[in-house]
Amino acid sequence: MPAAEGHGPRRKARAVAGLSCLALALCGKWLPGSAQTPQIKEIELESPAPPAGGGGTCKEALAKGHSRFEGFRSSVAESSTQGVQISNFRALAEGAEKACLKAFDAVAGQEGSCGTERAALVQTIHKDVWVIFQVQRLIAEQIASDRLGRALLAGMKTRKGPLRVQEKLDILRGEVKSYKEAVSRLLPSWAAGDPEEAAVERRLGELQFSIEESGAGLVEQRKWKESRMKEVMNTRAHGMSVSLDPALRVLLRPDGMGNLQVFSHGPVGPPNNPATVNFGVMNDGSIADVYREHPEPPMLAVQPAVKVNLNLR
Question: What pTM does this model have?
Fold first, then answer.
C-alpha cells in the first residue's frame, strides 16, 4: 500500500500539469488580446490525510475509494489533455463518484464510523472533477468559437459581402445556445453554475462583431473584389463593336506608259479624329482607259471613302 500511495501523488501532479497546459493552449487560440483570454486556476489534487486518531480500516477505505476513482480520473484527464470533448461528462462523473463511495463504504463497514475520511474523499473527488470540468468547458467554448467563425464566413461567402446585423445576431444566438447546452451536460450537479457563461457570451459577441476584420474575413473581402472585377471584365469582353473612320483616295495620272508608280498612305487631321489618305502617282495618262466613256484617263482622280472597323469579342 505505501508504494501505491507514493505513485498516486506523482501521477496526479502530472495530470494537473497536463490539464493546465491544455487550458493555456486552448486559450491561446481564441480572440486576440490578453484581456479576452479565459484564465483557469490550478487546483492541487492531493488527497487530504486522515485524522491522526483514525483507525486502519478508515485509511484502507479511503485508499480503496481513491483507487476506484483514479481509473475514471486518469481516463477523462487523458482525453481532456488531447482536446477531446466528453459530452456526457456530468453523468460519468456522478456515476464514478457513486461507485467510489460504494467501494469506500464496503471497506469502512458501519455507516458513519469513518465520516471524516468519507467527507475528505468526496471533497477530493469534487476538486478533481472540477479541474477536468474547467478544461472540458474550455474545449466546449473553443468548439463554439470555431463553429461560429465558420458559420459567419460561410454566410459571407454565400452573400459575397458582409452579413447583415440581424443575420450575424441569429447565428450568434444559435451558437450561444449550443454552448450552454453543452455545458449543461458537463457541469457537475453539485456546482453552482457555469462561472464563465457571461464572459463566453461576450467573447463570442466580439468574434461575430469583428469577423470582417479578422484574417479570414480580409481574405474573403479580397476574393469579393477579384470576383467583381472578373465579372466586369467578362461583361465588357463579350459583344460586337463597329466604328467608322473617314478616308480619301487621291491618284495623279500624268502622261506616260505606266513605268512610274508611287503610292503612299497616312493619317491627316486632328489626333482625336484622324482621316486616312491614300495617295498615288502613276504615269499612265497616255494609255487609253477602255472602261470609261473618254479614251484618255483624268489627270487627277479623287475618291472619298469610309473605313469600317468591326470588332467581335
Answer: 0.57
Contact predicate 57/108, CB 8 Å: yes
Facing residues of 311 across strands? Answer: 241
How many CB atoms within 10 Å of residue 203?
19
249 strand-pairing partners: 278, 303
Give yes or no for a contact between 313 and 237, defined as CB atoms under 8 angstroms apart. yes
What distance in Å separates the CA atoms of residue 66 and residue 103, rounded to the nearest whole number? 9
- Give the residue among 107, 142, 135 at the shortest CA–CA distance from 121: 107
Does residue 54 sit within a domain? yes
Q: What is the pLDDT of residue 20?
A: 45
DSSP state of 263: E
CB 288 within 8 A of CB 278: no
Angle between helices 89-108 and 56-81 (to 10 degrees): 160
Please list the residues that pair with 305 across neighbouring strands. Answer: 247
Same structural domain, 143 and 267 = no
**205-235 per-position pLDDT tens digit:** 998 888 887 787 788 878 877 777 777 666 6
- The predicted pLDDT at position 298 comes to 77
By residue range, what is the domain housing residue 208? 2-223
Q: What sign for the dihedral angle of Cα 207, 210, 212, 215?
A: negative
The string over 16-28, giving b where at least 16 C-beta atoms fall within 10 Å of a residue's C-beta and e elsewhere, is bebbbebbeebbe
**Residue 228: inside a domain, yes or no?**
no
Both 212 and 245 in a single domain?
no
3-class secondary structure, 41: coil
Split into its structural domains, the chain has a count of: 2
**Cβ contacts of 299 within 8 Å, gap of 6 or more:** 252, 253, 254, 285
Domain-embedded: residue 34? yes
Write the single-letter amino acid at 54: G
User: 197 exposed, middle or buried (CB, 10 Å; 0-12, 13-18, 19+)?
Assistant: middle
Residues 121, 24: one domain?
Answer: yes
